[in-house]
Records
---
Amino acid sequence: MNRPKDLITVLTEDHRELRQLFTELEVLSGGENLRRMLTDQLIIEMVRHSVAEEAYLYPVCRACLPDGGWISEEAHADHLRIEKIMKQLEVPGLPDDHFSFLLDWLISDTRRHMSDEEDRLFPLLVKNVSEAELVVLGEKAKRAKSLAATRSPPGGKDKPLLHTLLASGAGLVERARAYLCGQGKAYP
């Protein structure tokens, strides 16, 4: 029987997947078009992760941690800064060298943010939030993320993928966020 995953496990698995995408982008050879396509995938994955954190992680931090309000605001400010970089990566006709600079900056800032959560925030949650509550939040985060899958599950060829529903290009970050938050329909 599969043991339910708690919120920390779900988010840590996301971090691992994002780090894998970072590595792929850093070593990718095959042209800028392929790199830009993979960057669109990265942006969608990062928005999915951010929405899950904003919906489940930060509220429990505010409610249960000493200085939780401040910690949540600091982490949310990181998200806004990272999202701003992602939006700059969407600019049409961005020269390759500027695209590379922004992508390196995005990867560096996101790695720092994830490490801070894993090293500082997650241990605080373990000390201050019951395991049962973390499991409930983890299941909610998993369920919310599965509704916005970006890759087909095995045998799930009939299901539209988020990246298929969201055409890449200008406004990808806003469209992905709106879709994931239920604020509107994705544009085919």
---
Amino acid sequence: MQIIRNDPSQVTPIEAPIFRGNVSRRELIGAPQSDQLTVLLVSFGAGGRNVFHTHTFDQVLYITDGEGIVASEAEEHVVREGDIVIIPAGEKHWHGGTETSAMSHLAIGTPGETTIAD
């Protein structure tokens, strides 16, 4: 058993090609705590989002705050605090805040690759 004491000040602004707008993250679980599980707290400002991308693993998003959008090539959904989204491995998708609302979620998965989609 492990007890992980996270420091809320460990929030890191993200400036990477996969993200647009104001986005930050805090790693809650990853290496070295676990080689089987990753959990990130990702916060999107209003209008902040990521671009279409895929993962080599199933991803679970648990919306912890605000209102946002989760979209695939075929559909787009507004999500709110308490919603859970399961994105299968290989599905092209994006997620983030709405134009007027910030949104935070826990991103839960296993170690793997994330690839920006065309």
